[in-house]
Here is the input.
Amino acid sequence: MIEIRNVSKGFRRGDHVVEALRDFNLTIGKHEVIAIIGPSGCGKSTLLNMIAGLYMPSKGRVIYKGAAVTDVNTDVGYMTQKDNLLPWRNVRDNIAFPLELAGVDKAEREARADAVVKQVGLDGFETRFPTELSGGMRKRACLARMMLYGAETALLDEPFAALDAQLKLVMHELLLRLAADSGQTVVFVTHDLMEAVTLADRVIVCTRRPAMIALEQEIPLPRPRDVLNVRFTNEFKELYDALWERLRVEYQEERV
Amino acid sequence: MTASNDQPEIVAAEMSARTGNLVMVLCQTALGIAILFTWQGVSGRLVDNFFISNPIEVGRRLLGWTLDGSIFIHLWATVYATMLGFFIGSVIGAVLGIWLGISSFASRLLNPYLNALNALPKVALAPLFVLWFGLGIESKVALAASLVLFLVFLNTFAGVRQVDQDLIDGARLMRATRLQVVTKVIVPSALSWLFAGLRVSVPYALIGAVLGEMIASNRGLGYLVQYSGAQFDTAGVFAVLIVIALLAMALNFIVDIVQNRMEGWRIVSR
Here is the structure.
């Protein structure tokens, strides 16, 4: 579904070029949940931006459903650590925003927005503004918006990094449920290994900048997963330790 | 907050704050009266009446103008020029600000020229406006508008430039057209900046109108202050200054009310 072929990407910083990604190759299948993990600033976000068509690769190609991504990829939903809710719209209008853009009439889009509001557990907060919500509620609203808009692929760039540990688990549960219900492909960028192993079918460990793939690890844990308890199973522990060992090498290199 | 509050200390504290306000108003009034008496006393004794006139004469002049209605013709001329100049200047400034804010080509192309025009003291344009628009109200409107235009333009432009790129990208990923990005993301986001620009430019609209009237006119408060000065009528000059000050205060008051409304509608505050 998504193919990243020999992609390199550099950014000009003054008179030198910072290489974020080098000869990156990755194929992501439909309905797959991929977690990409690596040291901060290694070019993980750049990769998502290229799948979304917000950046163009310096070299190589990003292919989405058989066609090269050359413009903004409107089949994806994008969620970052910063929740991009429009501050002057209330929750309902924010969630219904993509339908408004598509020209759906007011009554229908509000009815549909209210339905997903319930799904993510935000009922009662429809007319609140983003500044009046807690961080977790804003994430729920972002997830709801992505659901409503029916994005085939969800690109998630450390979306829950700012949340506390308990809330993170709740959001993981919600994310997995929503993604399974709507058959989404999920590409999840994180630097939290626990999060990566809990959510993903496959974990990609990146090297430090310029990012290359250091390791790919299938996560054969059964689905649907119990995000609260899966971490205490032996299988989980083995996978986690193996990945941690590799990741530790990357972090150590960085320190030198 | 009603007085039937069950926390007497809070009520007492609030009430004493209110008393404090009342005392301040009384002090302010006393100061005003003291100034008027000093002025009256000094005039003709320590300083020549010709230079500073005196409150009684100024009051008499104001009363006379009010009774024969002549002040209202001038007042209305100034208010009209101020409002029209404010309106035209803000519309052009806002449109220009949004356009240049969106189009980086146009803004880079026009940048040096806009800087030059902005640096130019707008009063220097007055003779040109008189040549173009004549001695009537149009030249005053043009001068007021030229002052307002740049303030609103610069604020709107900055506002559009400040729009969070992530919000724009987000909307584009949700299949927003270019026009939708402008109307549903960029303009609402820049609105608080636009209103800040409008707010600061209200007094400038008045300045523009009054200056225009002083330069070439046959009505308006600016004309009246110029005319009184030319007649060596100090009392007249002071009387017009008081009217202009009251008008400026009234305009600021209206701006404050509008601002509060806007905040109520969540247009300005975030």
Notes: The CA atoms of residues 58 and 235 of chain B lie 5 Å apart.
